[in-house]
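R.M. (postdoc): so does anyone remember the format we settled on? I'll just put the structure tokens first.
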């Protein structure tokens, strides 16, 4: 009976939902996270911390190893605690430059400028040499 209770205690205390917060940094902006059993976080993955099924903070994976990952949160969050669930989020921010990739270049908007300087400089040092 005691063995059964110990086994149930171990099963209930193990992470059932995958990745969890292992440690919260003193700045409350950096956290250490374990990996899911079937999936390791990669650098630049966007992840969110969940408490009771609600998203409380999101951030980006800065470092990753076989043991776990370091996540930098977007904003300081005092609500994040050890044991909170961490999931990969597909709604991460996109850099603005990647948004322009979907807009194709119009052939009528070709830039026909010419560089007349050809690499020469006509600054003041050209007319008045500096002597050291």
């Amino acid at each position: 009976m005691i063995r059964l209770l110990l086994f149930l205690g171990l099963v209930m205390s193990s992470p059932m939902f995958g990745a969890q917060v292992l440690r919260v940094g003193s700045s409350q902006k950096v956290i250490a996270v374990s990996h899911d059993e079937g999936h390791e976080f990669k650098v630049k993955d966007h992840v969110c911390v969940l408490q009771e099924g609600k998203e409380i903070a999101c951030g980006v994976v800065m470092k990753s190893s076989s043991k776990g990952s370091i996540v930098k949160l977007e904003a300081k969050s005092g609500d994040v605690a050890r044991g909170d669930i961490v999931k990969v989020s597909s709604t991460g921010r996109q850099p603005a430059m990647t948004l322009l990739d979907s807009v194709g270049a119009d052939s009528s908007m070709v830039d026909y400028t010419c560089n007349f300087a050809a690499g020469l400089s006509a600054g003041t040092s050209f007319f008045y040499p500096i002597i050291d």
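R.M.: ...and that's the designed sequence above, right after the tokens. Also worth knowing: Residues 48 and 74 are 10 Å apart (CA to CA). Strands lie at 21-24, 30-33, 46-51, 54-64, 69-73, 85-88.
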